[in-house]
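Protein modeling request. Please complete all fields; requests missing the sequence field cannot be processed.
Requester role: graduate student
Desired output: 3D structure, token encoding
Chains: 1
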Amino acid sequence: MERETFEELVRQAVATLPEEIAERMSNVDVEVQEQPTERQLRSLGVPSGRTLLGLYQGIPLTRRTSGYNLVSPDRIIIFQRPLELTSRGDDDLVKRVRDTVVHEIAHHFGISDERLQEMERERNKRKR
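Delivered output (128 residues):
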């Protein structure tokens, strides 16, 4: 997929966030990279042979204090190639991009991977 088309998928995912979430996002940029660098993978302890779909870098809203000012924006990076490789067609890619954007925005709000996994398990139980 062309980079511009993929970036539009990411923009659409952000644009479809509930208004109360979008309004609370603060000082954060969402960007696309082709794939994670070796340094990014190593710094997060991603095992060899595994990859990363997205990455949040910054200070979550829950940890910001009154001294938080004049800082560079947080970054949410969405990795195009891994998402394309793990998707089964265009519809699946759209869903995976949205899920990844939401996951990384959750980190911006201070929600850990462990809590996100717990929430996913709870959601799956309710679906049964």
